[in-house]
């Protein structure tokens, strides 16, 4: 039997025998390393400048080792016939441009690491490694993944970050055992719908790709604890993602989000990173859903105000609001018991001295707490009713109505305007209405009551998806602000607004220039940026003589 093994070794091309041509060159894989690998089942060939994998590495469990061909006496530790099958092979940081199909000669492999090479493709034989649990092919030049990869029933970790992938196999969801998937730093524009089948996935990294949307099917990943979507082109997060009850870390930095996602079922969410987006408003209701949050990172956005409801985040330890447009802070911020880090640099804060900001988080929180005491009612106490305040939740400024002709109910996150707000107007003429920064889904019906006097209406930063007939009856209207809503069209009835001079439709969802705007004789300013309008009819615009000042339409 030994003779047969030796004969097979002689013809099998172990290729490292002494005294033949290449003996003067140091072998690429030292025999001592191979001996150790036969005992341990692990072989580390990282950083050896390999341009190809020597054949005897693939055949390490098939061919008789070189030392068996020599007249040697073996100790108990060197019994090559008692070798262990290779289970871990590390080929990282070499110069490999391809892998041989001979990889199938190592069926016991549980881990294969070939990261940081120059691979442009992977062998189909990988699909025969049915015991493989971890595959790291990151930092290569791969443009596709072989379909055979989907035949690995035990694969738990697949790392393909930093390659040149423009798409993933549609059947990737067949890897039912997968717990970790990293496809970051590629050129992906879409995610296969089969991802929904990866119910055991714990960590998913989609960062640094070209994704414009996430499939709602991701919500089926009930085990997912970490989701990284940093540096893509996301404008929204599917509402269905709110059902991912196991999610603990969500990274949405460097996208195009205009608001925080609604995550009512993510009771375990501990970290939310949404810096470097276009967020202008913090929705108080959204904050109330994040009671387990420890880290909230919102730096480099356009946030103008921090709602009092921030105090519901009783477990918050880090709050990063640097480089926003915040001019004042709620004093109740000082009552967050676990807060250890608060970043505020780069904000136009007017109520806090610069030297106080430089003293650190604890001194700042101490100052905010002291201001709560100085200012009287605490965050849970009802404010006193005065001549300027209605004895209701609406808190309408009567003085503004009577002297400034201003009806204001903004930044309340209200789903509808309370009846008391309109009741407070009485017989007073109102010229300006500001209902911005709420959660309105439609034009308040009672707005028509102000049609005899109102000329300036602001309904920006709401959730309005259509314009009702009530608005079209405000025939004295000269300025209309509807920015940051969900509008896709304008009704032809708006042609009745003969005095309309300026309309702001920025940050909506228009794909076509609203044709009714061509028929408004007084219209001079159209702000339509950050929509998807591809073109304006120059003939119609010239005929109307009004579209010359239109804001740029985002392509």
UniProtKB/TrEMBL annotation:
<feature type="domain" description="Disease resistance R13L4/SHOC-2-like LRR">
    <location>
        <begin position="255"/>
        <end position="345"/>
    </location>
</feature>
<keyword id="KW-0433">Leucine-rich repeat</keyword>
<feature type="compositionally biased region" description="Gly residues">
    <location>
        <begin position="9"/>
        <end position="20"/>
    </location>
</feature>
<dbReference type="InterPro" id="IPR001611">
    <property type="entry name" value="Leu-rich_rpt"/>
</dbReference>
<dbReference type="InterPro" id="IPR055414">
    <property type="entry name" value="LRR_R13L4/SHOC2-like"/>
</dbReference>
<dbReference type="InterPro" id="IPR032675">
    <property type="entry name" value="LRR_dom_sf"/>
</dbReference>
<keyword id="KW-0677">Repeat</keyword>
<feature type="region of interest" description="Disordered">
    <location>
        <begin position="1"/>
        <end position="29"/>
    </location>
</feature>
<dbReference type="InterPro" id="IPR050216">
    <property type="entry name" value="LRR_domain-containing"/>
</dbReference>
<dbReference type="Pfam" id="PF23598">
    <property type="entry name" value="LRR_14"/>
</dbReference>
<dbReference type="Pfam" id="PF13855">
    <property type="entry name" value="LRR_8"/>
</dbReference>
<dbReference type="GO" id="GO:0005737">
    <property type="term" value="C:cytoplasm"/>
</dbReference>
<dbReference type="InterPro" id="IPR003591">
    <property type="entry name" value="Leu-rich_rpt_typical-subtyp"/>
</dbReference>
<protein>
    <recommendedName>
        <fullName>Leucine-rich repeat-containing protein 40</fullName>
    </recommendedName>
</protein>
